[in-house]
């Protein structure tokens, strides 16, 4: 019984360690500092892998992080990462750096 309680107590902690959505799914081979202004033209487009690659290229960032609707993100700031949020219709709503 004690073993079951220990496992039951650990499960919520394991859930906290998982991420929702694809976090940093793409990496540019020679990425550098992010410039979100260069990728603002992608807002309103479909959130696809090809669009992610185009945003990564246009922003100059080294990594891409997708932001699914109604999800929380870590607050760490990375100069080499572009963040792309999208809505329930899979349309890109925001492109930022960090």
Description:
This protein is α+β, with helices and mostly antiparallel strands. It has a single domain (20-97), classed as 2-Layer Sandwich (Trypsin Inhibitor V, Chain A), CATH 3.30.10. It has helices at 2-17, 49-59, and strands spanning 26-27, 63-67, 81-86, 92-97. Strands 1-2-3-4 form a 4-stranded mixed beta sheet, covered by helices on one side. Strand 3 (81-86) and strand 4 form a beta hairpin. The radius of gyration is 17 Å and the shape is globular.
Task: Return residue spans where pLDDT drops below 50 for at least 5 consecutive residues.
Answer: 3-8, 10-22
- Reported by name, the CATH topology is Trypsin Inhibitor V, Chain A
Count of domain modules? 1
| Class inferred from helices and paired strands | alpha+beta
Anisotropy-based shape: globular
CATH-defined architecture: 2-Layer Sandwich
Calculate the mean pLDDT score and round it. Answer: 79
SSE ordering: HEHEEE
How far apart, in Å, are the first and last alpha carbons? 46 Å
Number of strands: 4
Largest sheet, strands/sense/barrel: 4 strands, mixed
Q: CATH homologous superfamily, by name?
A: Trypsin Inhibitor V, subunit A
Strand content: 15-25%
CATH class: Alpha Beta
Give the neighbour order of strands across the main sheet.
1-2-3-4
Total helix count?
Answer: 2
Q: Helix amount, in percent?
A: 25-40%
The whole-angstrom Rg is: 17 Å
């Amino acid at each position: 019984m004690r073993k079951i309680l220990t496992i039951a107590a650990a499960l919520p902690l394991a859930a906290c360690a998982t991420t929702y959505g694809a976090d940093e799914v793409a990496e540019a081979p020679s990425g550098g500092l992010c410039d979100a202004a260069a990728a603002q033209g992608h807002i309103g487009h479909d959130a696809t892998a090809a669009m992610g690659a185009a945003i990564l290229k246009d922003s100059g960032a080294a990594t891409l992080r997708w932001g699914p609707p109604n999800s929380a993100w870590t607050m760490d700031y990375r100069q080499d990462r572009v963040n792309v949020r999208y809505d329930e219709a899979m349309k890109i709503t925001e492109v930022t750096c960090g």
